[in-house]
Write a structure and sequence with these properties.
Elements lengths: L34 E3 L2 E2 L18 H5 L1 E3 L2 E4 L5 E3 L4 E6 L10 E8 L2 E8 L1 E2 L7 E2 L4 E5 L8 E7 L9 E2 L5 E2 L3 E3 L9 E2 L1 H6 L1 H9 L1
Antiparallel strand pairs: 1-2, 3-15, 4-12, 5-11, 6-7, 6-10, 7-8, 8-12, 9-11, 12-16, 13-14
């Protein structure tokens, strides 16, 4: 069990209602990655059900004034993060000192379909252009004094997002982890990771248009 649980609130506004996560969430978990299918791996040693913030979490907009465009999987700092399938590193912002800006972007290909995996709040030594295979360790969950350590994992079927990629109609910036309130993540290409791991091809196709 992670030393951070069972908090119901945390410094700097990170909020996790205790009822929203199972009792076994967290932990250092040195187990090997979970193989979801013959060609697909899970990005942490958590499971798809072990989310501290789900995709489009109902409590998220009130707390953060945005929609959640990925899924958060809580594990202790330094726990490994895995590539979900083969790909090429496109961006590495994990040297950023701000925990909320740490990001690794990998252009993945699954069964002939390209998409961008966004691995947030991690540290990584990978360089742009590095090739990875499914199940490879691509980094470790970063530590933070103000947040519960976790991997924010986002999948976009249309484009690569960076720290701040877009602006909404009111000029508000948003990027790889969030969309403005009222802008559903799938309308700009974000795929629900839980849906993806159940049916990757249909999940990607539904967000490509």
């Amino acid at each position: 069990m992670s030393k951070f649980f069972p908090y119901t609130s945390f410094e700097n506004g990170f909020y996790i209602p205790e009822s929203t996560f199972p009792s076994n969430i967290g932990g250092s978990c040195s187990k090997p990655p979970v193989m979801m299918s013959e060609k697909l791996w899970f990005p942490t040693t958590a499971t798809p059900e072990e989310k501290c913030f789900q995709f489009m979490a109902p409590s998220y907009p009130k707390k953060f004034k945005a929609e959640h465009a990925g899924a958060d999987y809580c594990r202790d700092a330094e726990s490994p993060v895995y590539a979900i399938c083969p790909g090429t590193v496109m961006k590495n912002y994990t040297a950023e000192t701000n925990y909320n800006l740490k990001l690794l972007v990998i252009l993945h290909n699954y069964s002939g379909k390209d998409f961008w995996g966004h691995y947030g709040h991690i540290s990584s030594d990978l360089k742009i252009g590095d090739r990875v295979q499914g199940g490879d360790v691509v980094g470790k969950i970063a530590s933070s004094k103000g947040n519960i350590p976790h991997l924010h994992f986002g999948i976009n079927a249309r484009k690569m997002y960076t720290i701040y990629s877009d602006k909404d109609s009111k000029g508000r910036k948003y990027g790889w982890g969030r969309t403005p309130v009222g802008v559903h993540p799938d309308s700009v290409g974000w795929v629900n990771p839980t849906t993806f791991f159940k049916d990757p091809i249909n999940a990607l196709q539904s967000c490509m248009a």
